Amino acid sequence: MKEISMLIKPASSLCNLRCRYCFYADVSENRDVASTGVMTDETLETLVKRIAEELQEQGKANISFQGGEPTVAGLDYFKKFASLLDAHPGIEVHWSMQTNATLLTEEFAQFLHERNFLLGISLDGYQSMHDSNRYDAEKKGAFYRVMKGISLLEKAKVEYNILTVVTHELSKHPKALFSFYKDHHFDYIQLIPCLPELNGDTRGLALLPEDYASFYNTFFDCWRKDFEKGGKMSVNLFENIAGMMQGFPPYQCGYIGRCTTQFVIESNGDVYPCDFYCLDEKRLGNLNDLSFAQMRETPQAKEFMAASKCTKAPCEGCPYVRMCNGGCRRQNVCWLTDDICAYREVLDHIVPQMTSIMRRSSS
């Protein structure tokens, strides 16, 4: 079965919040045009035509939405997108979205349920931590609005994960964060390192290599103790490590060790190879001018992939090199320097314990 995956920015970099560390605000501010507004009906129709063209009317489309804040585009945008794809019954669609959940309504949640969306909800743990970094234009924290959105999703039986950006400050409180998840019965967790700006400025927020190992090792210890008591919390990093230990390829692109063309689609139809690099010089083309197949063959796509291999000294001779391959070139600044690799410290801590856990689970 033919398959295509894409990440769509239906509202470009527009957002109703002003999160202190927003990487896409940083990316968009480095373009000539920071925001291209909400996607027009004409661009949406062209996008659906390109999807059908790529799959030749038969195959799987993995469609994810991000921003900015994608729900700024409004419910009618998503309804029209789904309706347009309904006209291509040979295409199997898998929908997902990353959202701050503050603009959700009962009607929106019901639509997400009907279309089997998987949502990633941006929530940085307990209120004081979340509200110190995620707030609106009036500097009012968004914690309770996010929790209200989660309640709407639970009522409508929409599947969701919690996405937490681990900042320098949050990295000091792994036990409190784990307890928060347990108290609220959040069972599916994705931990995301807070990145420095493209110019290297950490803003005092970015996760540093010296933070990385201490946070993840302590968080893993909490997870292991809970697991041994019957806990079922799924944590993306730990599941990824367990899978690779069993010979499966990493399911997160950041551990493949090389870049691929992801097709990140801005609201005006511009296409980029990676969410972290939606920059003018990385642009592959526009949906109005090129097919997905043509964009794969552009010089920009080939150059982007060729420049992705990590060559830092700590990777040489590392016993875990096939479990990260140097990592994502944009994210690995949070754990890898020319001298040390904090991810190796995490693997030194986790792998022996994970081996024991998997052995007991299979016996």
Low-confidence runs: none
Query: Average pLDDT value?
Result: 93
Number of strand segments: 10
**Rounded radius of gyration (Å):** 20 Å
Report the helical percentage. Answer: 25-40%
Summarize this structure briefly:
The chain is 37% helix and 14% strand. It is built from twelve helices and ten strands. It has helices spanning 23-28, 41-55, 75-86, 106-114, 127-133, 143-155, 174-183, 209-228, 236-245, 292-296, 299-306, 342-362; strands at 3-8, 59-65, 91-99, 118-122, 159-166, 188-193, 234-235, 264-265, 270-272, 285-286.
Structure description:
- With 363 residues, this protein is α/β, with parallel strands linked by helices.
- Helices cover 37% and strands 14% of the residues.
- The chain has twelve helices and ten strands.
- It has helices at 23-28, 41-55, 75-86, 106-114, 127-133, 143-155, 174-183, 209-228, 236-245, 292-296, 299-306, 342-362, and strands spanning 3-8, 59-65, 91-99, 118-122, 159-166, 188-193, 234-235, 264-265, 270-272, 285-286.
- It has a ten-stranded mixed β-sheet with strand order 7-6-5-4-3-2-1-8-9-10.
- α3 (75-86) links the parallel β2 (59-65) and β3.
- α2 packs parallel to α3.
- The radius of gyration is 20 Å and the shape is globular.
- The two termini are 36 Å apart.
Keywords:
single chain; 363 residues; alpha/beta; 10-stranded mixed β-sheet; 10 strands; globular
Tell me the layout of helices and strands:
Blueprint (H helix, E strand, L loop, with lengths): L2 E6 L14 H6 L12 H15 L3 E7 L9 H12 L4 E9 L6 H9 L3 E5 L4 H7 L9 H13 L3 E8 L7 H10 L4 E6 L15 H20 L5 E2 H10 L18 E2 L4 E3 L12 E2 L5 H5 L2 H8 L35 H21 L1
Parallel strand pairs: 1-2, 1-8, 2-3, 3-4, 4-5, 5-6, 6-7
Antiparallel strand pairs: 8-9, 9-10
Helix pairs in contact: 2-3, 7-8, 8-12, 9-12
